[in-house]
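In the current project phase, we have settled on a layout for protein records. One protein thus recorded is set out beneath this paragraph:
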Amino acid sequence: MQHAMRLTVILLTGVLAAACGTPDDSGPPEINYGRDICVECGMIINEARFAAAYRLDDGTQKIFDDVGGLLIHQRSTADSLDPGTTWVHDYETEEWVAAADAYFVPTLSVTSPMGHSIVSFADRDRAEAFAADVDGEVITWSTVMELPVVDGLVGNHHTDMDQNMDMSSAPGGSDHQHNG
């Protein structure tokens, strides 16, 4: 009887230890909105719908308050991004989605925290409906990775406007004010 009791205690201890073990490194990080800091700009991350993140091969996770900040940081550090371990939030549902599976709409109709104005969706139909509403275009992660950085802003939607208007008067203009 004591042997069975000892065996039960050992098994329960093993189960509890496994449950309290290392965190799951297979998915996106948990961001504490209103407390965690964007790796690129150093500002507090407040809005899930714009937040983005990636994990490096060594397990290091980096979090950002918008997709443009992630791109600028990646370019300045030359971090190797795997689209399967790079995540963005769906603009409407605020759920995490792997960048490889997301659809993006660069648009000045929405002001993201650092003014990069790139929104993402898990569903192509919703992305296309949104793009139609803002006279935008749906692009994929590979195209996002090729967007130019102009005057500290990411996106081809900014480069066309630079010739026609002063960006400081546009939503999310070159003053880079953080919403929040």
Observations:
- The chain has five helices and eight strands.
